[in-house]
Amino acid sequence: MKVVLRVAAGILVAVLVGCATPETQPSAAVTSLVPNVQRWFRVNWTAEPERDGERRLRGYVESALGEPANKVQLLALALDASGNVVGQRLQWVPEVIPPFGRVYFEIPKMPPAAQYRVTVWAYDRIKGGGGAGLPALRVASYRPTVVRNVSAFLRSTLSSTSSP
Q1: Fold of 24-145
Q2: Each residue's pLDDT tens digit, 11-37
Q3: pTM, rounded to two decimals
């Protein structure tokens, strides 16, 4: 029985070490933490010059969700003519997006670039309320979780499965 537990513990350690990677970082290829986010959100914007030579992105994010979207983060990428990232910024949408609604946003201090891309990086769905002053019953978060202390996790897991 102890051999089986040791093998299981070894497999668990290998899996957790393989999964204990740094948090996902935005890039030209990674534009959202949420699969198929373009199915649920559409982002329209314009890039306007500011006095200091930088650009301000202004626009609307529209939701096709039947529930309010809260804690919406937008990823703005500044791209050169070859599609390489020359600047990026994560910006919170200033308010809850109502079901099937839209919200205005501004993303300041973007560097001059050949083109820009704005996508929804992450968001929370409020299920069962949250609109018109109603309390939210449940929030479904679309942000990954990372096991930060693998050894403590293993100790707690193995201590609950070890035999006397």
Answers
A1: Immunoglobulin-like (2.60.40)
A2: 544 444 444 334 555 555 555 556 667
A3: 0.62
